[in-house]
TrEMBL record:
Species of origin: Streptomyces chartreusis
Keyword Transmembrane helix carried by entry: yes
Keywords assigned by UniProt, alphabetized: Endonuclease, Exonuclease, Hydrolase, Membrane, Nuclease, Transmembrane, Transmembrane helix
Molecular function as annotated in GO: endonuclease activity; exonuclease activity
A Pfam family reported for this protein in Swiss-Prot or TrEMBL: Exo_endo_phos
Spans through the membrane: 40-62, 74-95, 101-117
Disordered, as annotated region: 1-21
Positions with biased composition (Polar residues): 1-13
Annotated protein name in UniProt: Endonuclease/exonuclease/phosphatase family protein
Residue ranges of every copy of the Endonuclease/exonuclease/phosphatase domain listed in the record: 133-335
Keyword Hydrolase among UniProt keywords: yes
Amino acid sequence: MAQQAYVTETDSGGSEPDRRASGLRRLNRLVSGWRGDPHIWRRGIVLAAVAVVLALVMGLHARIPNAIGNLGSLIETFLPWLGLLIPVLVVLGLVRKSATALIAVLLPAIVWLNLFGGQLSDKTGSGGDLTVATHNVNADNPDPAGTAQDVAASGADVVALEELTADAVPTYEKALASTYKYHSVQGTVGLWSKYPLSGVRSVDIQLGWTRAMRAAVTTPAGQVAVYVAHLPSVRVKMEAGFTARQRDKSADALGEAIADEPLQKTVLLGDLNGTMNDRALRAITAQMRSTQGASGSGMGFSWPASFPMARIDQIMVKGIEPMSSWTLPETGSDHLPIAARVKVDTSAS
């Protein structure tokens, strides 16, 4: 009976030491297949060259010109995804049995980790005295009331909504009225707040219609200037490349408005149609901090909602300390809402 039990156990996969030994034997066969091979340094030169080019593209992305189809901005929008080519190159290097290729792949791996490795860690902190959220609700949203309720459920003290239509505004106002006593809608953007608003006005971002606004929010921790913006959309066209000229012009105008803001503490909420890596947003990013970059966990991609590939929705601050940042669950929009907890009163920091 004991012998039968032993045979059954062996037939079902063997003992753990046996499996480890088998794995070591397979690894040894792989290494021995390379040992003494005089061609491991000569094979895979093309793969090595591709790895070097990949490292240069990522490391020198700011030097890639925008003169032709805004190529630089296009690459910067999806820059983190270039890292997916690294494991592909590793596999190809193993298949080719090329030591040269495998060593070369270290270059893009190091560059990628230098650029984005910090975002892989969880920088979420505790505390803070103000929670803000922003959401591009999508003009074609089939459930505006449900979307409004979902965003309000985040517990945010201040909520910005973009891509509001005239027909949908009353629905959002009704759905948010019980949670937010104060609100203002300017053009296609709106701001809802639990705290009083003052100095509300539209912000000219060189479009000819209103897609940005500013308001002073009087929070218990002090007054904060809150900007809500929806920069023009960008498109990728075969004949024109990354068409973002109007977006870039609006970003410069928004950056100038924020630079002229008299209040020292400022929050920007909105859909900027660009990532923090995109040099076209430099007029904004050079003077403000991303809450996701400073206090988030992971990349925080927000678009498209079905399979987020880029963080084009942003919460940025100046004179305020980010404490935590996160994305909210999917709504009826093609964007994910995002939220952040910040510390307005930094006197004790």
